[in-house]
Amino acid sequence: MIDSAQNRVTNGKKSVLNLISNHILYYPTPSNLNYAWSFGSLVGLVFAIQILTGIFLAMHYTPHVDLAFDSVEHIMTDVKWGYTFRYFHANGASMIFILMYVHIGRNLYYQSYLTRPFLWTTGLIIFLLMMATAFIGYVLPWGQMSFWGATVITSLVTAVPFIGEDIAHWIWGGFSINNATLTRFFSIHYLLPFIITGIIFLHLILLHTEGSSDPLVIQYTNEKITFHPYFTYKDLFAITVILILFCILVFYYPNLLGHSDNFIPANPLVTPAHIVPEWYFTPFYAILRACPDKLGGAIGMLSAIVMLFLLPLYVTISSRLKLILVPFSAVHKIFFWFFVSIFFMLMFLGSNPAADPFIICSKIFTTLYFLYFIIILPIISFLDDFTLEETNNF
Question: Which of 101, 200, 225, 356 counts the highest number of beta carbons within 10 A?
Answer without folding.
Answer: 200
